[in-house]
Design goal:
14 strands, 15% strand, five-stranded antiparallel sheet, 40% helix, five-stranded mixed sheet, alpha+beta, Beta-Lactamase
């Protein structure tokens, strides 16, 4: 929903910058590779050009990264339906996430794709396909989507040489500043983005609601949540729970753009919780993990994963996945992720914006016709998508959280006017993000006491080890929470079995990675606070109140902290703070 700047990469300083070969290390801070992938009628998907030239083959180490990227860069079997005109062009943006075969640990690469399908009766088989891909270790979707809308058309205009031109500009950028706004020059324009926090950034304390919901507190903050789930708004709270507890989810959509946007929206729902489940915005049968998943028998436990797919073959091959959500609309004229086709319930046809009137939708949900359709949909199951695409959720999960209709009734609709649809979507996304950010923050708040730091009280010596954070035991936590209750915010939005959600969360794949990260951050912050207290202490005043035994203990403590500081600073010359510690140690020697 950002306006695309007009960019010229030709002439003057821009040409000089583009002519200079980019520094590989500087480029790697942002991107692994820039590629053009072509669909060959005889040989299939081929890497037509890549910069750096060996980025896919050398990085893959024989692991087939080039083929995996190529297969992930094109729509699958049911993805796009071009209009039946003599000549037409269809552009789309989507993303994928694949294992990095060059990484010794389980790391992933993010691919951001500008795909162009051109229908022309004069061409063999009536058309052609090409994709421009940015491959990166970082999930900077807000940045790379903007960059692709510059690089994509540029590649079709000047050819593959545009890859090196843009790479030179990217290599000249400063190092990424996760969690902060940046202005990154590209040609004659600048991309203004707010990068998401780093993976090891614990985010705000669980008891503290961020003041500005527009600031990213998790991945894919730019995902168009409202457009992706416009036909399933009442199910968002169930989907939020599925993501919180780490349930496997299969997302089915007509196009890669719609399924990747929906998966990104689901991941963003649980911010600021660290989402530790494997997710694939666009998953194909060529992914190396498909062979492992395909052999799972029906009823066998499906691993925690969120898979975005367009190929209906997955509905048959992945029958053991317990949660299936279908999103989007197979609109043949769609060139981006659009809201659900058709008129929103409760909206007039005069083209003016209005409220979504979800109260009517909630009433219609319990009408006899709606109930019969719901029973039929549940009986047919996800395989009903084989004959007709419809927006629905099939799940065996019993949700605890109730839909907040007061939030839904604040949403606005653009009516039939595409001119104001974009601004309305911005407003609606802000409303939804604010609510789910508040919901997640309140859900995590009971863990706050186990992450709370302490500082030395006045009159006590900071030259002792800080107290340990309170130990965490799941059973004690659940029992204490049952006695206290969920709090005012959650009690209004959860059913009587709300404690089951905490039990599932504690047993799921998201809790321990998040808790360990927050715990480590709290311990580090506590060490910093106590170290700062040692630097600011009035040494003479403190020592004058000490007994001889306390002075000896403090002497030993200072010596221990000095050794620790020397290890941390690798024996670099002591700065002022270290000098203050030495001064205190000498003072204690004199007093003794």
């Amino acid at each position: 929903m950002n306006r695309i700047p007009s960019v010229s990469l030709r002439g003057g300083a821009d040409a000089d910058a583009a002519a200079a070969p980019p520094d590989p290390a500087a480029l790697a801070r942002w991107a692994r590779a820039f590629c053009v992938i072509r669909f060959d009628l005889e040989r299939g998907q081929l890497v037509e050009a890549c910069f750096p030239p060996d980025a896919l083959t050398a990085a893959g180490g024989g692991g087939g990264l080039d083929r995996l990227v190529a297969f992930s860069s094109f729509p699958d079997s049911m993805s796009h339906h071009l209009p039946r005109h003599r000549s037409s062009v269809h552009d789309s943006l989507f993303s994928f996430r694949v294992p990095d075969p060059s990484s010794p640990r389980r790391a992933f690469l993010y691919g951001f794709v500008f795909n162009r399908q051109r229908q022309d009766e004069r061409l063999p088989r009536g058309g052609e396909q090409k994709s421009v891909v940015i491959l990166s270790h970082a999930p900077y979707s807000s940045l790379f989507r903007l960059l692709l809308q510059i690089l994509g058309p540029l590649c079709f205009d000047v050819g593959p040489s545009a890859l090196a031109m843009v790479a030179s500009h990217v290599a000249a950028w400063p190092a990424p500043a996760p969690g902060k706004p940046m202005e990154l020059p590209i040609g004659s324009a600048a991309l203004r983005v707010h990068l998401p926090p780093a993976a090891d950034d614990p985010g705000p304390p669980p008891a503290l609601l961020p003041a500005n919901p527009s600031v990213p507190y998790g991945l894919f903050h730019d995902a168009d949540l409202f457009a992706a789930f416009r036909g399933l708004l009442l199910h968002l709270w169930t989907l939020w729970e599925l993501m919180v507890v780490g349930e496997p989810v299969l997302v089915v959509a007509p196009s890669p753009a719609q399924c990747s946007e929906a998966v990104a929206g689901l991941v963003s729902l649980v911010a600021p919780l660290l989402y530790s489940v494997d997710f694939r915005p666009y998953f194909t049968i060529h992914d190396p993990d498909f062979a492992r998943l395909n052999v799972l028998a029906e009823g066998e436990v499906f691993p925690p994963m969120v898979l975005g797919v367009t190929n209906l073959f997955f509905l048959k091959s992945l029958k053991s996945i317990p949660n299936v959500v279908s999103v989007g609309s197979p609109n043949p004229n769609s060139t981006r992720v659009l809201p659900v086709g058709g008129q929103t319930p409760g909206i007039g046809t005069n083209g003016t914006p209005g409220k979504l009137k979800l109260d009517k939708l909630a009433i219609n949900k319990f009408s006899p016709t709606s109930l019969l359709n719901s029973i039929k949909l549940r009986r047919e199951g996800p395989l009903s998508l084989m004959t007709e695409h419809k927006e629905a959720l099939w799940s065996t999960y019993a949700p605890t959280t109730k839909p907040d209709t007061s939030v839904l009734n604040r949403l606005v609709d653009a009516g039939v006017s595409p001119r104001i649809e974009e601004s309305m979507s911005v407003v609606n996304n802000e409303i939804l993000r604010r609510h789910f950010l508040e919901l997640t923050t309140n859900f995590l708040a009971p863990f706050g006491p186990y992450l709370r730091t302490t500082t030395p009280s006045e009159g006590t010596s900071p030259f002792v080890d800080p107290p340990l954070l309170p130990p965490f035991h799941a059973d004690e936590f659940v029992n204490g929470l049952a006695a206290r209750g969920p709090g005012k915010f959650l009690s209004k939005r959860m059913r009587s079995n709300w404690l089951d959600l905490y039990r599932r969360f504690l047993e799921g794949p998201n809790f321990m990675p998040w808790f360990r990260q927050r715990r480590a951050a709290a311990e580090q912050e506590q060490q910093r606070l106590w170290r700062q207290a040692r630097m600011n202490v009035d040494i003479e005043k403190l020592v004058s109140k000490m007994s001889e035994l306390e002075r000896i203990d403090s002497f030993n403590a200072v010596e221990r902290y000095l050794l620790r500081e020397m290890e941390v600073t690798f024996f670099v010359t002591f700065k002022k703070k270290e000098y203050d510690l030495l001064r205190f140690r000498n003072f204690l020697n004199i007093q003794a």
